[in-house]
Design brief:
Elements: H1 3-10, E1 15-16, H2 17-29, E2 38-43, H3 51-61, E3 64-66, H4 77-86, E4 95-101, E5 104-106, E6 115-116, E7 125-126, H5 129-140, H6 152-161, H7 173-195, E8 201-213, E9 216-228, E10 231-234
Parallel strand pairs: 2-3, 2-4, 4-8, 5-8
Antiparallel strand pairs: 1-9, 6-7, 8-9, 9-10
The protein binds zinc ion.
Amino acid sequence: MGFQESLNEHFPGAVPEADFVNRTVALLSGSGFTPENTIACVSVCRDEITQPLLQKVRTAWGEAFNLSSLAGMLFLGRTGFTAAAHHAPNAGGKERYVYLAFPHIAIHIDGQVGVCKRGGRKELSTACGALFAFQKELASGKLSVGLAFDDVEQSLIKIRLIQEIPYGQVPDLLTLTRAALKVIQDDLERFIGLTVDPAQSDHAVFTGIQIHGPDGNYIWPDRCFQVVDRAKTVVSL
Ligand SMILES: [Zn+2]
């Protein structure tokens, strides 16, 4: 099985990253969102191979507030989300926010999931490394789930994700990535509820999984919607 077959099997409907970002702009233009009147807020893993998405969002939307922690998790809290909202343009008495949030996973040229070749490195590498480390710790049978001040983000990943894993199970990396997506979606919507006033703003949410292939990055879209004039509509890319 090669990369494309593996991508189709695990992430049917995945599209090249540039197409995905361009579609967000085209889709939202019909609802009054433009690069001039909207702030984009993005969460991806800190890993350098995720960063082309941030660049594409900046190019398409004019700027991007960075929400990111390891694994694309949202640990910036209410203060971070409030700051992002306060940076939006005040166009025509209304503010507009576009939130994009994704965990990530690599697929190697031979179709193997979780593995990638990084430029300049001889051996194959894993992505997401943070989720892989958590998976290894689960598999070892010894899991430390306290807040570690010398490893704050990784310990928060474990504390948050363990709530999604059935007791005693050791999920594979693909399952763990989907669990991370669910947590990111739940947390994103909770923070939006805490910091966004739908009476004075419109917003859109795009979530899914970022996939690293041998020829570039892809996005598998999952929960995507817009809230315009308080009305929530699911959007399809
Ligand atoms: Zn990562």
